[in-house]
Write a structure and sequence with these properties.
This protein is of the alpha/beta class and 421 residues long. It has helices spanning 2-22, 61-65, 77-80, 91-102, 127-143, 169-186, 206-212, 238-252, 280-300, 341-352, and strands at 43-47, 70-76, 106-112, 150-153, 191-197, 221-225, 263-269, 308-313, 363-365, 375-379, 391-395, 405-409, 416-420. The protein is built from ten helices and 13 strands. The longest helix has 21 residues, at 2-22.
Amino acid sequence: MTRIHAFWRQHLHHFCLALATLCTSAWGASAHHCAPASGPAHWQGVVTHYGFVNRPLGPFVPKQQAGMNTIRDEIFWDQVQRADGSLQIPQRIDAFVDEALRHHITPMLVLGYGHPAHDQGGKPRSAQALEGVRRYAIHVAKHFQGRVRHFEIWNEWDADTGGAPAGDPDSYLQLIQKVAPALRALDPDLCLVVGALTPAAQFNGWLNKALAQGLLKHTDALSLHTYNYGEGRGKDTPDSWYKDLQWFIDKELPRYPFAQGKSVLVSEMGWANHQTGVSENLQAAYAIRLRLLSLALAHQSAHTANPYLGLWWYDWQNDGQDPQDIEHHYGLTLHTGAAKAALNALNELETVMPVHGSPHPSRTAQIGSVGALTAMRVDTQAQGPSPQHPTLLAIWHPANEQATLTAQLQEDTPRFSGSCQ
């Protein structure tokens, strides 16, 4: 018990105090080009996959209720460019963009994947294929001008996602150099996002090489996919995610050319509850912790050279029902659309600190089941650390164990005291 007590004191001082005194002051507009235009200065999003031909448009009210202020979705090149070379946006893409905007949810569209008329449908590398991508990207941006401002250029170029073999940094830079300046010339107000790279690219030198060669020269933000479920016990948690991303933003990214002033986005992150994954309850716990730690990191980096602006949970809906397929179990909802524990927990979190409104005054909540967020309080009274901002205290056990904690945040001084039994 003594060992647990000591660990709790050390861990909670770092995480809970940071959340209590910092993250709720993140409400309010950010000056960064890619940040939300109003409301909180960070993105709380979800990947929806409505761009898939076989994915019907789902309701957006549940996304609002879960605190989502953005969605990320695809607009496939081979669905826009027809066999005769003409370009036309599928009606279902217009439909989900308009429905998102109607619910005050900002869409970010992914431009990408191959076209059978160019380079055998693989990643575009030839001059003809690169010109084809540029033409398609310009058409999409023109079509959605005034409705969509955020575009991510390709998805996981470093992997075989989409069926094409993995690409190298040199070919990805050629793509960015062809597409990004053309989009910028069309509309300087666009937020152009590059990267969307797998976790492997962050460890095998792929990302380092791309950054060193000027990946960020023509763009506004770098996006990453930060899955850590395969990193081993203790390294596969939201807490570990927070530490790793904070280190990358503070120590690694500033070393590279053109990084100054560019923001960081996490365009995919989540945990799956398939047969060998986490339990549904632990997925819910991680969803809550991830959102809170994301909020804290957004606040802490807001005035740095590379502000972190938020994340998109992967994904909204289970992609199937095979208990062994990891891709079938990332969703906040089942394949049928019914809510999973993670969505219910985020709904409860939203009642306490809503993204689309002001924090609820003097609210204490028990959120989630075993291993989830165990206590939280938002207090808008003057006795908190700042009379201008609410106070948030979030507590969990990093090893998902049961414990009893008594804690007191001492008026306006940055001290935390607590005891654990």
